[in-house]
Amino acid sequence: MKGFILSFRSEFYKTRKTMAFWSAVLLPLAICLLLFFGFLNHSDRLVHQPGFMLWLQFAGAILAVMGSLILPMLIVFLAYSVNNIEHKAETWKTLFSLPISKWAVYSAKYFYALFLTILCLLLFMLFTLGFGNLLSVLNPALKFSEYHVEGTLARIYLKLLLSSLGILSIQFLLSLLFRDFLKPMGIGFAATIAGIIMANVGWKYAYTFPYAHPLLTIKSIFPSRMGENSPPIPQITVDFFTKDIVVSLIVAAGVFILGYFIVLKKSVK
Amino acid sequence: MVIDTQGLSFNFGNQQVVKSLSLQVPEGSIYGFLGPNGAGKTTTIKLLLNLLKTDQGSILIFGKDLVANRISILSQIGSLIEQPAIYSHLSGRENLVNRALLLQVPESRVDEMLTLVRLKEAANKKAGKYSLGMKQRLGIALALLPNPQLLILDEPTNGLDPNGIIEVRELLIRLVSQHKKTVFVSSHLLAEVERMATHVGIIDKGELLFQGSIKDLEAISQPHVQIEVDNTVDVANFLKKQGFTVTDISDDYLQIPYLSKEQMGEINALLNRNDYQVYSIHKIQKDLEKLFLDITQKA
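The joint structure predicted for all components is written out below.
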């Protein structure tokens, strides 16, 4: 356990000045800020909406961008970055000749990538709430404060996190094995596009494909928004035990363990 | 023995790069691991650090089996493999602090190391901007940081200027003589190894050709006296008459086996007394290539 904590701290120390770390902070800030200004500019059109609908539109717009492309690609990038730092500096051989177990080195790196993903999603949530409330402060006619969205939003982001764990494990392993940029990034990008298509065309078995999970999650949260028979105020339900989440968790755990055995067997060049 | 391997072998695919190596590195020695590029030195070092899985044979370090006691053994080893592994986006100091964090070494030790390898002034510069020599010195500092009992260094003087080479050499000698460390250092330069090592192992094409103390090696790598004179043929004939063996002769110089400094002085005086002008006279070492030939022929 000590080796894990030391390695985890070292991961932070190494990346604290790199894009690996800052992308997890700046991306939520940039996207939420962009939508904040968009809403501020068009506030005259939104003043008549009830608080619930305002949140639905504001948070929904952020979630729609996130779930489809940004979250999977960010994970592809994070998984690549935390491994690339060792590929680039040729430090795998040093890491594995330190008196720290291979398990600690490997799992600390994986959990650091997971930590960055959680940090990013948490900031997405906090910025959504912060900027939403800021909108109603700047323009009191926008009644964001009418409705409390915190609990719902937290559940949505938690489900989004669970839905992305499969991608994280796969990308982490790919980035660990391949030192060049193109393989993990290329595979990740192609798979994300494939996932978006699968989820959008509503393919029956899309839930088996990890890269489709974030978008499936988003779609499952706002199912009947466009439907003709939908109620005037849509219901938001977050069901954690869906098929895609189960697949995501199984893939995440399976690939993570597989990765450890590969590290154990692999010679360090 | 600090390092004791028996029948150590390793293959890359079908190619056997380390062949039944039996290394014996005594405690408190500077063991020079000598061999040309591609002889299997780095592979052997990676085997000693458990980075590569041994195909055959055993490795005992500090008398314990390496595979079974990996962590406790590695905690007493400092290593530098190939080019130093340094995070170029971090400063030299941050590289050391990061390692200190991992190894739970007090941060004061970082400053000691920076002073030791003379990087104090460049400590806050990004390591990516360091010269090759500075990177090498930082690599040595990283290896020394945990104050290890055994230091394994792969070509530590690569890329260093003459001053740097002398410094590293003196540092290693000091570590062994004053701090009772053991140093295992690889090199492709015979002269380099001869200047600091107490023990030598010579490897070529994955095979250990020679292993023993530096005295044993000197017996094989017999040095010569090279004399530069105007008329080498006349001088050679003269020296032969005086009972010397001339082993090599060219237009510019001739060589005779080296026995002692005094004898070298006598030859100089003898030639001068007999009106042969001596342009230069000095001791030379056999180069590694010739040494290998000698060793393989004797074997």
